Amino acid sequence: MDIDTYLEQTAATRSERIRWWQDARFGMFIHWGLYAQLGRHEWVMNRERIPVAEYEKLADTWKPKERPAREWAALAKQAGMKYMVMTTKHHEGFCLWDSQQTEYNAANRGPGRDLVREFVEACREFDLKIGFYYSLMDWHHPDGALCATDEAARRRFMDFTQGCVRELMSNYGKIDILWYDVSWPLPDAEAWESVKLTSIARELQPHILVNNRAKLPEDFGTPEEHVTAAEEGRAWEACMTFNGAWGYMPISPDWRPAREVLSMLQTAAAGQGNLLLNIGPAPDGSVPPEAVARLTDVGAWIDKNGEAIYGQVERAGRERVEWLPLGRWTLKGNDAYFWCTRWPGREMVLGGLRTKVNAVSFLADGTPITFEQSEDRLVLKNLPYHDPDPVTGVTVIKLECDGPLVQKLGAGCVVLE
Ligand code: GLC
Question: Does the first or last residue of the chain, that is N or C, have fewer Cβ atoms within 10 Å of its Cβ?
Answer without folding.
Answer: C
